[in-house]
Amino acid sequence: MRKIYFMAALAATAMLGASCNDEWTEEQYEHYISFSTQLNDTGVTDIYVPYTRHDENGDPMYGEGISSYELPLLFTGTTDNTRDITVHVEHSDTLNDLNPARFATRMDLYYEDMGAEGLTYASYPETMVIEKGKNKGLLDLRFDFNGIDMAEKWVLPIQVADDPSYGYQSHPRKNYAQAILRVFPFNDYSGEYSGTGVTNKVVLPDGSETTESITKETIRGYVVDDKTIFTYAGIVDEDYTDRRLYKVKFTFNGETNGVVTLSCDNAEEIGFEVNPDVTTSFRISSSMDATQPYLEHRYVIINNIDYWYNYKPSEGTAIRYHVQGTMTVARDINTQIPDEDQAIQW
Fold first, then answer.
1. Which long-range contacts (CB under 8 A, 24 or more apart) does 269-274 make?
2. Which of 58, 67, 69, 293 could lock onto 53 through a cystine, CB 3.0 to 4.6 A?
């Protein structure tokens, strides 16, 4: 009797083992094509692209202000890809829903479509291939940032196209089959600066200034070109309706240190003046991390910022501000990664 029980148990174990082994040879989920992107709390995916893409010698690969970005597309499932898959990519009209849902009637805050008809800021191939044996492919996005105004909130909305003849299915979850890329070109000087070292004081009618100061925790430096960024003047930020009037340009003269020239395209309209008795300067410094020796901490420090401007909250009303101080931006760079945009830990 014991022998019979033993043989029965052995047979059951063998059958269970065979069942488990067979189970993993078959697909447990559906095979879908999706983008490898993650939405942030504003409903888009931030990507950082060099203003000019350089080669290993430091020379522009495509020309000044022209860059590229490789966006991953994934073949999902528990089994590997057994054939070459040609994936079709097309423009998405998702901003028609996203903008009103997020900003309602505040059209000045709407995301702008850099892939819209008639614009040449972004391009991409209509198809790309995920090769046999691979579960990821890279979509080659190209950008021409020449003349772009980063006062606009540029995004690139694209999606995986579906058709029965294509031989694949896009992921049924909308946020997987679509990508809404908020594109931030960067240069050596752009990024999120600390704003706690910059004061904004109101200038009173008699020429004196208030003792109280307005400060912002961070001040974003947006790219103009390889040597220039802009910030919004004083208290102004990206959420202001009239932000486009208040762009203060910082042009860097030098490689690792030198003079910074401040200017404003609307200087007369907003009463922008730079203190002629003060020289704004910058320096770039770096240090290696004490515990992670491959990690470089790089700092851009802008000293002696000193200018005035008028903010106009309504027609016929102007408040004059005096802006002074120092801004610092820090980047952590993984020196083991050769690609500059991938090496920076954004």
1. 269/245, 270/233, 270/245, 270/246, 270/309, 270/310, 270/311, 270/312, 271/308, 271/309, 271/310, 271/318, 271/320, 272/233, 272/248, 272/307, 272/308, 272/309, 273/307, 273/308, 273/309, 274/306, 274/307
2. 67
